[in-house]
Amino acid sequence: MLRSIAPLFAAAAFAQDAGVKFFETDVRPVLATCQGCHNERNKMSGLALDSREAVLAGGNRGAVLKPGSAAESVLIQAVEQTGALKMPPGGKLKPEQAAALRKWVDMGAPWPAGNKVSKRAGADHWAFQPVKRHDPPAVKNTAWVRNPVDNFILARLEKEGLKPSPEMDKPGLLRRVSLDLTGLPPTAQELREFLADSSPEAYDKVVRRLLSSPHYGERWGRHWLDIARYADSDGYTIDAPRTMWRYRDWVIDRINEDVPFGEFVVEQFAGDLLPDATQDQLIATGFHRNTPSNYEGGIDFEQYRVEAVVDRVSTTGAAFLGLTLGCARCHDHKYDPVSQKEFYQLFAYLNNVNEITKEAERPEFNRPVMEVPTPDEIERKKAFRSQFQALSNEFIKYIRDLNAARADARKDLGFKERMANLRALRQREPKYTTALVMQELATPREAYIHLSGDFTRKGIAVKPAIPAFLPQLPPEKNTRLDFARWLVAANNPLTPRVTMNRFWQQYFGKGIVETEDDFGAVGSKPSHPELLDWLASEFVRQKWSQKEMHRLIVTSAVYRQSSKNRDDAAEVDPYNKLLAKQNRLRLEAEIVRDAGLTASGLLSRKIGGPSVYPPLPEGANSVTQVKREWQTSTGGDRYRRGIYTYFQRSAAFPGLLVFDAPDATSTCTRRNRSNTPLQALTTLNDLAFIEFSQGLARRALKDGGATDAERIDYAFQLAGARPPRDTERRKFQEFLAGRLEEFRTSPERAEEMLKMPVKDGEDKPLLAAWTSASRLLLNLDSFLTRE
Amino acid sequence: MTAEEQLLQFETRRHFFSRCGIGVGKIALASLLSGGRILAEPTGATNPMAAKKGHFPAKIKNVIYLFMCGGPSQFELYDFKPELQKYDGKECPEALLKGKRFAFMDTFTKEKPKLLGSKRQFKQHGKSGAYLSELLPHLGGVADDLTFVRGVATENFNHGPAKCFANTGSVRFGRPSMGSWVTYGIGSESTDLPGFVVLQSGPRGPRGGAALWASGFLPTAYQGVPFRSGGDPILNLARPAGVTQAHQQKAIETIRDMNLSTLAETGDGEIATRIAQYEMAYRMQSSGPELIDFSTESKETIAMYGAEPGKATYANNCLLARRLVERGVRFVQLYHADWDHHADLGTPLTDVAREIDQPSAALIRDLKKRGLLDETLVIWSGEFGRTPMGESRENGKSGRNHHIDAYTLWMAGGGIKPGMAIGGTDELGFSPAGDKVEVHDIHATLLHLLGLQHEKLTFRFQGRDFRLTDVKGTVLKNMLA
User: Which of these, A645, A658, A709, B2, has the minimum number of CB atoms within 10 Å of its CB?
Assistant: First the structure.
């Protein structure tokens, strides 16, 4: 009955006043119970119920209310629980409450004037404000300052009445900066040179050398590969091998070339959309194709395509914007001003890659994929083609001759032989390496809000757009390429801050913002906000040169400090946030291996190429669904750096995983540094480390000098770039003597100890004793740690 | 001890207490400063696996999770449905299928799926009168110790993601597994074995691999450690050839002494932790081989499980599981493949049921006999169940598709009421009837029994406090004792 007379109410002026009164007495208290979730700040399902404008704007499902018609209003269906959507969740309004809402809607949803939509909280948060370059603050101890970075650190220390620590001793400093810039400890020669150079520029020279070393690209490339969730297999159930090493090499090469970070990012996000994209620019787009792919039987391919796009958005948030965008997949962000709608607007930028969506396309799994031959491969292919051409030509001529002689080709031996040769050659046609790449669909896919994050539940359609609280893109420039350029645009305050913060984190163990992937409202506050902004602005001023920023940090006095604990500083600053000293950091997984390889002299310094298969502990590969063959690499490839070890997601190389290498299922912006017994078992017992020990032993015996004392010094230098302390020397000597005696009396144990071939004339018990003693050095905390 | 060593130790102690008290906690220096031999016991706070108190007193200490890979058919094992038998061969009512998504959708769109009655005979067992099929005679014998949970719902109909969900509470790979959450929450009683151990048997490893026992964003110390039943149970556990035990001990002691000198110089408490980890590694080298040595087990026990020493069988793993919880290992998970019977519910199902029946029952009897069942929770479950509709991929044979709405699992052990069932399914076994049970509820209940409140066991990552139970989970109160 109410329904039929409702228009009459709405039309009459006197009724409006009555309506507002009804709203205040009967409706507002009911809406208040809904506003816990549906308010301007939380906007559950995109819907706010705290102003008339917001109610009329509707939510992710579209309009919720038609003034004057309760029957056509989703809001009423929801609270009366007559349709699929039932509100409130897990309960029901009292009948009189639901009736009041129905009456109110039929009245035309009257609302008192003056209730405006409030500004969304959070947009004024520090991280979203433009970067402001502050002048480096004045300090008392000006002699300590090496560059402006130090002003910021020292000013704060002086405020707390703390003195910085003295500079690290020379060997320790060389090992630190070598590991930090190249991931490799210094060689004996490099150490000698540095110790001999007493000029004031000695350290700067070292930094210059390290930054121009090709190993710099490997070390900082590996850090980027963590962010890119790079792996050599598909992940999920089947986890078959995939070929992506050209992307890995692209990263190493570009970092070595010091391509401006902006270009580095744009090519990875949208190299395919650049005019006349080169092969390298296409390889770069592997960045967002490193997502795991599922092709287990019976799946809905669309579901896993959607998962990959969601991952692209989350990765973009964590790696560039320092925002936990993933939180807004299912509902509006609880703390930051990112609505669920804005999540899917970002989703829309990354949603148009020509990947498969249904079972019928299964044979084209992992499309788009392209051939990306190396210059070498092109040469080999050319050579093959000309060889094939020559053989074919000769064959044709032979057939002509046979025909001319009217001989029966089928019975001719020469014919058969040539035929077989050609076929065999065809089998050996060299293949081009491939890579997964981005390729935009001609017509973009429809993007829509996924209700509760479920892609089968469609909300309203959305178009690509940047979240409202950040600098905007003009509507005519709104492609994935424009989005990429926006990420590194001069007015984007987040990307340079987040990037510089990660650099800082790698050098000091913690970022200036400790939550390196969350610069939002609940992330930690920066310990040195002005330094962070100074670094961000300097990064832009240095034309986004990563090398210049690395140089700046590693040549600062704060970086060069000793890492020894200090009672006075620990009292004031127990977590060393103010950096009155450096921090000791356990080496990253790959570097544990690389440092062992370097000490042993076995390291292959080859850069790039297909991934390799170092020896795997027995039984390590038996845990996956599909058992994969592991053809252990031979020759130099057995001793390549950890970055080149084949990485299978479902059964990652144990020696890497045990030292906290990320599992590559999603982006990793900071690695754990755990300390476990399984790590001890690895460096004590793993075949690789026994081989490294033997290599180290052989070098100590061969090049260390004539006396044990000299050899011990040399072995310590190779493993830790430092001389032994007296206690260490004595303990080492004692252990060595014990082993030598044991191996002399039980030479068969010496034989067993030596895993690598022994040369003629080598004293096996002696080599075995030194191997055993060298093993100690590769298990020292000071070996596993960057001091 | 020489004067210098005494001085070193004194220095270490002084530096240690004065300089690294903060952030390291109270580290028992007993083993560090006792000099000489490696101690038999670890040094408390240095061990991330040290046993910790939960949120409230626990009902159980340990969990043994028997994971049946592939999705066992509840209709052939536990969920007796005479009505389904009656409609055998009839087309499945449209109303049931509406709005549902299934794996291998095409097999259901090509022709209308038909209901399939079970060919297996069922009978009631024990005082509780639980129905079990002829495939599980041994489990029938311990029916009064089992608590069935029927009509369990999960979220994804593909093996990998569903396994991930059953283990981590998320279909997306990369979250911490339940064993990691548990050891993160309360550590482990074992001082010389990892706190979370994974065992495998069957023709292949579980789909998803290491993601199922990964620690996700929790520290890696809490990830599951896969043990093998043959050879060395842990990777790199064996000393290198040519290295005797005395040699290894001397090596670890020398490493410790050298590390102590670095500790004295730098004052970094992390070094003390490393020393403790090397000592635990050393203890694992003897406890590992001892663990897998069945020679101390009686002939009767071996026969009860049907174990064959040295082989990677489910029976061996059940016996290992008992030995592990006996030694205080907090969370033991067994994976057994393969239950994915799309095409044939005949011989392949009979075989795999036989592989698990006797050992699972033996595990329960053995735990009970030793007084361990009261402090252990045994869970038997797959990643989902199977449809009441049949699938025919090969001529003359019938299988069933994946079904995520209403599968059956069972538990046995401390803190729960034995010989009963909660939840239920409708007459065709298609949908749950009665209490709604979801995977998050199983996780919430498991944590509850261990003394952990699932809403409070959180870890902050990427700006959010994550839980094993995500934003859901209700403790299944009506099965608690």
Answer: B2
Report the pLDDT value the prediction gives residue A626, as an integer from 0 to 100. Answer: 56
- Segment B244-260 shows an average pLDDT of 96
Assess if residue B31 is contained within a domain.
no
Nearest CA to CA, how far is B268 from chain A (Å)? 7
Q: How far is A677 from chain B (nearest CA, A)?
A: 5
CA–CA separation, A658 and A652 (whole Å): 10
Q: Is residue B269 part of a domain?
A: no
Instruction: Give which of A338, A626, A674, A686 to mutate to test B binding, by max B Cβ within 10 Å.
Output: A674
- Judge whether B418 is closer than 8 Å to chain A, CB to CB: no
DSSP B92-113: PPHHHHTT---TTHHHHHHS--
**Average pLDDT of chain B?**
87
Q: Are B481 and B468 a contacting pair, CB within 8 Å?
A: no
Give the whole-angstrom CA distance, residue B158 versus residue B155.
9
Among A633, A674, A635, A677, CA closest to A653: A633
Complex ipTM, two decimals?
A: 0.85
Interface test with B, best of A311, A585, A656, A681 (most B CBs within 10 A): A681
pLDDT value at A766 more than 80: yes
Backbone φ and ψ for A240, nearest 5 degrees, come out as: -70, 160
Question: β-strands B420-423, B130-133: how paired?
Answer: unpaired
Where residue B203 sits, what CATH number does that domain have?
3.40.720
8 Å CB contact of B281 and A732: no
- B353–chain A nearest CA distance, Å: 20
Give me the numbers of helices (H) and strands (E) for chain B, helices first please: 14, 15
Residues in A closer than 8 angstroms to B277, CB to CB, are 675-677, 679-680
pLDDT tens-digit readout, B146-164: 999 999 999 999 898 899 9
Residue A113 phi, psi (nearest 5): -65, 160
Give the residue from chain B lying closest to A299, CA to CA: B103
Asked if B208 contacts B173 with a C-beta cutoff of 8 angstroms, the reply is: yes
Say if residue A558's pLDDT is above 90: yes
Question: Of residues A285 and A36, which shows the higher confidence score?
Answer: A285
Q: Which of B220, B311, B336 to mutate to test the interface with A (most CBs of A within 10 A)?
A: B220
The rounded Cα A275 to chain-centroid distance in angstroms is 27
Two tokens, residue A100: 């009041």
Q: Which residue range(s) make up the domain with B366? A: 52-241+299-479
Cα–Cα–Cα angle for A272, A276, A282, nearest 5°? 30
Binning pLDDT at 50, 70 and 90, where does residue A114 land? low
- Is the pLDDT at B21 greater than 50, yes or no? no
Q: Do A236 and B210 touch (CB under 8 A)?
A: no
Residue B439 within a domain = yes
A491-502 pLDDT per residue, tens: 999 999 999 999
Would the CB atoms of B209 and A735 count as touching at under 8 Å? no
CB-CB under 8 Å, B158 with A565: no
Calculate the average pLDDT of chain A: 91
Q: What is the number of structural domains in chain B?
A: 1
Rounded to two decimals, what is the model's pTM? Answer: 0.83
The answer, yes or no, to whether residue A60 has pLDDT greater than 90, is no
Place of tokens 């033991």: B332
* Residue among A654, A675, A690 minimizing CB distance to B274: A675
Q: How far apart are CA B154 and CA A556, in angstroms?
A: 55
Nearest in space to B334 (alpha carbons), one of B176, B177, B200: B200
Interatomic CA distance for residues A693 and B248, integer angstroms: 15
Contact between B203 and B338 (Cβ < 8 Å): yes
DSSP state of A649: G
Q: Among A104-113, A636-645, B252-261, B422-431, which is the least confidently predicted range?
A: A104-113
Q: Burial code of A244-265, b = ≥16 C-beta within 10 A, e = fewer?
A: bbbbbbbbbbbbbebbbbbebb
| Domain-located, residue B41 | no
Residue B371 per-residue DSSP state: T
